[in-house]
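As agreed, record passed on underneath.
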Amino acid sequence: MVDVTGIEQIYPRPLSGAEVETPPPALVPGRVPLKGKHVTLEPQHADSDAADLYAAGHSTEQALHIWDYLTYGPWTDVETYKATLRAQSSSFDPIFYTIKSVKTGKPCGQASFLDINAQNGVIEIGHIWFGPELQKTPGGTETLFLMLCYAMDDLKYRRMQWRCNSLNEKSRQAARRLGFRFEGIFYNHLIFKGKNRDTAWYSILDDEWPEVKKLITAWLAPSNFTADGQARTSLMQMMTERANDGRAVR
């Protein structure tokens, strides 16, 4: 267990009991492709995706570390993994997507919408893993941005959640970098792989989303990257400045 003091500060919002003048439209994410410049998210298909996803998540020591904080994996062979993918692909909540590289056309990761509460406009991004080729690339950021835009803009959700193992600092950094606001820790929340899991919670609310979207859009712009693909600005710094200047909280 870690002491989060000094790692993250909670910036509480004022509590509100205001009337909801326009309820959310109560739409559930469809099994439709989400297309970007670097990646396409496609509804997961066990038969066609299993071999490439297995390779992306198992072929190197770096890839095997993907499963350190997930509640499942790794698997011993493709067929065992395919059985898991079949169960995932048939699920209505979570709804799983295979992330495919536009450059290679091959699967390179996975993500899902889960804990879908359409009537109240609450949804979460989770079950996220990126193969090594997608890690620390604009495509990785674009993957999550496509999901955020679909949920918050197209489906009009009011609250986007992010949960992760409190010890998974990479996931916590990813949440902060995308503009999620830290809400706190649920201690003794789960048991996974025989170990205790304390869960860190984050959110983006509908009134926070426009500014978050503006910053991520600016970061993903082609003009923000050098000829060799290096970002000219830090998205984490942009979100930190957003939090610190008093216009929003993180």
Observations:
- Strands lie at 34-35, 39-43, 95-101, 107-117, 122-130, 159-165, 181-192, 195-205.
